[in-house]
Amino acid sequence: MRICLISNASVYADAVLHSLLAYPELEISGLVECTAVTGTANDWHAYKRLFARSGIIYAGYLGAVTKPQFRLPHLPKWKSMKAWSHSLSCPILATTNISTPETLDFIEQCTPDIILTAHLGQILQPAFYELFAGQTFNIHPGKLPVFKGPDPVFHALLEKEKLFTISLHESIRQIDAGKVLAEKTIQPERQTLFRTNLELFKFAGELIASHFLSKDDCLPVPENRPANYRSWPTNSEILKFLAAGNRL
Fold first, then answer.
1. pTM check: above 0.85
2. Does the residue 29 lie in any domain?
3. Overall number of domains in the chain
4. Domain for residue 43, yes or no?
5. Low-confidence ranges of the chain (pLDDT < 70)
6. Is residue 248 included in any domain, yes or no?
């Protein structure tokens, strides 16, 4: 099975790739690296919007997990997506906009069986789904539909959840609303934002194998709690998060 992975380069994308390669039946046919900071921009205006929205502390966390040169000593080393492309002998495209004609052409040329997004901070546009509807799936580090949104682990920690779920779901135009196909729930020993996310993303390959390779060992569990979408953390939420004793 050929997979084109779309992600913001990060330690989490590295964990996803390691987990996929644990299954010889899976082949990475292409990589798309989203380089946008906010929206489809990576200029100083984008950084200004990031700081205004989430504050310097959360921006520092994002820098530590997405920029190898800013890696803190206690974080594991990881390979850039360019380094992964070299080691896997597969093509890579870096872009600020996943839904441009150039990007869509690149994905088609990779001839994937499925398109997988993981740790992607950008909403796919209608032009993307016009070509790849029914072929695109997302790895979401949250229990759906309870924890929709870009950073579900942050909000789960803020709300004092003890169990954390990573989900494989169909990617449709409505955010985090596609059918859940597989999931894994864990109780991590070190419940920091970073460590919990990292532990969850390590199960990406197991979720793909469960559904697409008919392992059927990560079947989703029905959820009775109502659907809830939570956006990017605000600076006030970050301060509340830290004041409650949580750690990034």
1. yes
2. yes
3. 1
4. yes
5. 70-72
6. no
What pLDDT does residue 76 have?
78
Residue span of the structural domain in which 237 resides: 2-243
In the prediction, which pLDDT does 45 show? 87
DSSP the chain: -EEEEEEESSHHHHHHHHHHTTSTT-EEEEEEEE--SBTTB-SHHHHHHHHHHHHHHHHHHHHHHH-GGG--TTSPP---HHHHHHHHT--EEEES-TTSHHHHHHHHHT--SEEEEES--SPPPHHHHHHHTTTEEEEESS-TTTTBSS-HHHHHHHTT-S-EEEEEEE--SSTT-SPEEEEEEE--SS-SHHHHHHHHHTTHHHHHHHHHSS---S------SPP-B--SPPHHHHHHHHHTT---
Domain presence at residue 64: yes
pLDDT at position 178: 94
CATH no. for residue 124?
3.40.50.170
